[in-house]
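Closing statement on the beta-D-fucopyranose sub-project.
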Amino acid sequence: MEELNEADMLSFSPLMRSFTFNAFMVSGFTPISPGSKLDFFIHRPNGMKGYMMNLTLKGKGIIHHANGEFHCQEDEMLLFPPGVIHHYGRAKESIAWDHLWIYFIPRPYWSDWLRWDHKQGDIGRMRLPDHAHSQQMIQLFKEVISSNAVGASLPEAMAMNALERIILKAFQLQPASNRHNRDPRIQTVCDYIIEHLPEDTRIEELASMTFLSTSRLTHIFRKEMGTTIYGWREQLRVSRACDLLRYTQLNVTQVARAVGYEDPLYFSRVFSQHNQLSPRDYRKKFEQAPLF
Ligand code: FCB
């Protein structure tokens, strides 16, 4: 891909045009210097409808959240999940806060990769470990942003593809998801469950896949993951159901089936235990949330 300079990025940025957040993805570059046009605070008391990823290129930002604040700096990425309150802008003492950002409605199967280990006020934070990783990430953000360019072919598909690579790379850099740290047999089980989430996979099948007895597998799983196999699967099912309720038109019975529950009443009970809201109320809450 051709090198994009800052002026190009700005010209592709929606900040320079009128844009709507009622879209699957909006991305841009926000350069802030003291007193400049973009030097103001963004207040989002209800968060946003979709996710937002943010990468600082220069200077410092200050992020206020529900129970405090923190600074973000060069080579740091942030992940704002839907509905998370935030107010942010250039940190007072900093001569700049230039950042790249992508607002997006995730594809449902991305949700397992949108869990970051380190969070403050529900906002994911991650420092890129070295220059090479930073350059790679910046390049991917630029790919997403430049796919807005007039005349680019397959713009949406290309942008979603680059975004998926950003999400995967960021997830690979999370310490807990780092495959080398996890017992490979447990990793096999987790991967299998993720791939076959709606299926009624029995522990016996998982045990034979990993050449362990069922009791040995349940023991190691609990030790590694801090929960039981079925408990872990339930959390995943509920979290995938949340995405389907938020981002699709499927009705509650269809959502229940899609994540592995034949009985919608049972699904609603499990869902309410996790979210303190019924699936219907959960959907309503997000319908009412402002886009921006
Ligand atoms: C722009 C901000 C950027 C991001 C998008 C959604 O105005 O500069 O940080 O929040 O809105």
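Residues 15, 30, 42, 99, 101, 103 surround beta-D-fucopyranose (CB under 6 Å). With this model delivered, the sub-project is considered complete and its resources will be redirected to Aim 3.
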